[in-house]
Structures are given as structure tokens and as C-alpha cells.
Amino acid sequence: MPIRPVLSALLLASLLSSSAIAAGQKTPTTPPKTNAAPFVPVDAPDFLVGLVAARANDYATAAQAYSAALAKDPNNMELLRQAFSEAALAGAPNAVDLARQTLAKAGGRSILTAFVLGNDAVLHDRWQEASEAYRSMPSDALTNILSPLLQAWCLAGEKKYTDAIALLTSPKHSASPAAPFYVGHAALIALLAGDTGQARTLFDKANQLFPASDLLINRARANLLWQTGHQSDARNLLRAATGSDTVLSLAEPELQAAIDSPPVPTARDGVAHAYVLVAFILRQQALHAPEVDSMQQINIASAMMLRMALTLDPTMAIARLMLSEIEESLGHKDIAIAVLQNLPDTNPLIRVAQYRVAMLEDQLGNHADARKTLERLSHDAPNLVLPLRSLGTILSESKDWPAAIDAFNKAITNARASQTLDWTLLFERAAAYERTNNWPKAEADLQEARKMVPDEPLLLNFLGYGWAQRGLHLTEATELLKRALALDPDDAAIRDSLGWVLLRSGDLPHGSELIERAAEQTPLDPEVNYHLGVAYWDLGRKTEAIDQWNVALGLKPEPDDQQRIQSALDFSRTADIKTKFPIQDVVAPVQQGSTVVQ
């Protein structure tokens, strides 16, 4: 089970303050120091359970165990902080009480206490209390960006919409790097207030400041158009927003069905989206962090923001999707799956979440579960490319080549219809065709793909080696593979392919040299070792050839490679060393009506 460092209550504050995004402030190159673990006797069962659960990311169990340990040692400040941290992560009922206890201690004030107490006030519509709690956050570059959003939504909660919009569009905040986001949230507040004219003006301004609108803003703008009688424009806007993202295209029917509902119907939802926005900003910084440790720190802080959003709206799909992505990046694939479970079927992003779960299940080796989900998504969205393509890839991994080809056929048909066909999809189908020994169709796909990307080394290698294996077009195959190696001189597979075609063309010295170098790069590749054995045999190095074939046989080759290797060993037992190795062409069965594209 994946583990993470135990997160102290004050670690978040140090992470956020060190994850500056204001101009001129950089991510630290060394990780912040965490507080020492509380001193508790090693035989204290509750503490040990909490420690193990915390390292396994089981927040609920950790929160319960640490709280039980704290009850036995209520004056242990470090234990209080740990119990509070885990309770906050788990959204446990006692998190608010622990936050108050922590705040009452010297040095207990932190961003996390402000979040928990502020969110509790929001949940009970105590907006002034929420505003005061958020105002207590320690000041740093990140909280200076988050605070105006939280304060504005607190004002909106009091129905002081004019004040809220004025706050976010004030000259002070117009100079902030986050100004486009402030204006976007001001537009959301205007939409909540029913002021469609001001909402339109603010959305237009936000788009001028930052043209790359996110899903939330696009949904809000579509809803605004719908409310003001521009239904066709509303649907087109949403269609364009989802059509440009193949993952979001899974959700288009549901998003269109919800177009008449505002995506931020309450001020509470606005506060939740403020957390998501800052999590997104952090996430973007993590992707460009100079060191792995810095990236992990920022991701943990971003995950905390998302968990705060989920305490306000546990069904918030966008927060769950982003949190799942972060947990995956931290190596917690099982948690990434759990985060996406139990979303309501009515959630517009439910199929996006299901697709993400299928991809994660496949990575964990649960191919049957992934296949079942993708088959269902493909059935529900038969005109889309993504679920069918992913299904084909998973079927290929399971070596169910006929089923993979069927899925790729449908995906390619859809891609042609939507004019989104790319070479990689043709490449994947070609690989499946090749594995069923249908070279003419594989070759046709590769030739079509070459027209799209003439200098793609993967394509050149696949086509050139495919010809070499079959004794076809050896001169052209040599030129293709030389071009491929020039484009990617470090690729061992291409070097082996070129060596093999040279060997087949009679250039034994150069061919054997290339294969030998490829074997040095990839010593555990059975096909390369087989080729090296052939080269050694023709060089008169019989013992070394037999050694290479024995090595290749022990590397669990594919069935067709295994047959070739075994045939080579059988040949070596009776053949004279002066006899040139009899390379057998891979012969594709004749396909009625098929043609070889040259």
C-alpha cells in the first residue's frame, strides 16, 4: 500500500508560504522541516494505529486513532496538532472542535485552523464569522491571492453582491497576477445576483485578460447566454468547450442537459470553487517545479485545498478529478480511485470520472474491470474516439488482438468523421494487425500515418523492420531505418532493426556491429539477442551464437519469437559452422482483396 509522510498541522502553512506564486518569489529547493512526531510510549496502541493509518493515507482511521490517543494525553500539543490535521483531511466531525483547541494553544494559529473554522461557519451560513476566520490566515504570497476570493464570497453569502464585486475588481486587486481569476469570480457573483448585464461585461473582461477559460467559466457563460434567450449560442459555446478536450467530450450530453442551471448556485459553492482555483494554480506550479521534492510539497498543499473544497461540497466532481490526479502523481493510485468513487449518477462529470477510474484500474493491473468500464462508456458514447481507443489499447495489452482491432476500427471511423484522426491511432491499429499476421493491413495503416508525419522514427522503424522481417523492399527498408536512426540516434530498437536489415542484405560487418551495440543497450530483449546470435553464427562464432539464443530463450519471448529461437538452437545442433544461417521470412497469409501499399 502506498505511503506518504505524516502531515503535521503546521506543515501546510510552511508549504503554502514557501509555494509563492507572486512575481519574484520562487519555489524553495529544499523541503520544509516537519515537526517531530509526538512522544508517546511505543506500546500506545491508538497512536501506533494512527501512525500506520496516516502513512497509508487512511485519513478517517488515522483521525479516529489520533483522537483516541489525544483523549489519553490531552496536554500533548504535537499529538493535538496531528489529530487535528488528520481530522481536517478526513472531514471528521471533531475537526472543528480540534481546530478550536489548537487555536487556543500558543502558536496554534495556522492556515488550516482558518480553513476548518471558516468552512464550518460557511456550512451554517454564519458569513461574518467565516469572514473573520479566513481573515486570521497568516499572510503570505498564496493566502494573499486566496483571501480576496474567500472574502468576496462571504460578502455574497450576506447578499452584499455589489460590495463583493467591488472588492474583486478594485484597483488594488486589478494589479494582482490573479486579476483574471478575480474578474471571473466577480462575474460568477453577478450571475448569482441575477445581474446578467454586469455578468456579461465581467465575463468579457475576464476573457480579455485570460482567454483560456476553464470549464467553470465556460459553463457559467453558457448559462448566462441561456438565461438571456441565446440558447443556440449557449449550446455552441459548451459544445466548443467540450469538443476541444477529448476527455470532457465524454460529459457533453450531461453538461448540455444542465445548461439551464448555474454552475455556482450558492455562495457556499463559490467558496468551494475558490479553493479549487488556488489548487489549480498550485498544481500548475507543481508541474514546473525545479525539483521533485518541491513538486511533491506543492502537490500536497494543492490536495489540502481540494479537500477543503470537498468539506463544503463532497460531490464536487472537478475537485475530485483534480485530487485524483494529484494522488496519482504522488504514487497513490488506489487513493486516486477511491477519490472518484460514489459520485452521484446525476453529476455532469460522472463519465469523465468513470473513464479516469478505468485508466487507473488498468495501471494497477485490473484489466478486466477497466475493460468493462470502457465497454460501457463506448456503448453510451458510440460516436466518441477516446473510450474506444482506450479500450483498444487495453485489449492490445491483454493480447486480445481481434477485439482490439474491432475497437480501433470503430475509433478510427469516429476520428475520420470528426476529422480528428492522428497517426498514433493508425500506429496502434497497425500493431494489432501485425500481431495477427495481417501485414498488408498493418502496412496500409503505417503508410497512411507516414503521410501525416513523414519523419516519425517510430513509424519508420515499424515499417522498415516489418519489411525486413518479410524479406520485402530491403533497399527501401534500409533507407527508412537509416533515416530513423539519424532522427533518434539513441534508440536501441531502431539500431537493432537497421542491423538486422543490413544483415539480411549481406552487410554482415556493419549489421553485426549495430546489433551488438543494441544488445549492449537492451540486454534483456529476446529478439535482439536472437538477432545477435544469427550475426555471431554467420561470423563463425558458433559458441557465442548458441549462448545468445539460450539467453534469448530464457527471457520469456513472445510465442513466435520463441519458435524462431528454438528453431535456431535445433539448427545449431546439426549444422556445419560454414553453413550460413537460414533466416526464414515471416510470411503473411494472403488476404482476399487486400493490397500491399508501397
UniProtKB/TrEMBL annotation:
Residues 1-22 form the signal peptide. It holds the Pfam family TPR_16. Keywords: Signal, TPR repeat. Transmembrane segments: none annotated. TPR repeats lie at residues 526-559. SUPFAM superfamilies: TPR-like (SSF48452). This is Tetratricopeptide repeat protein.
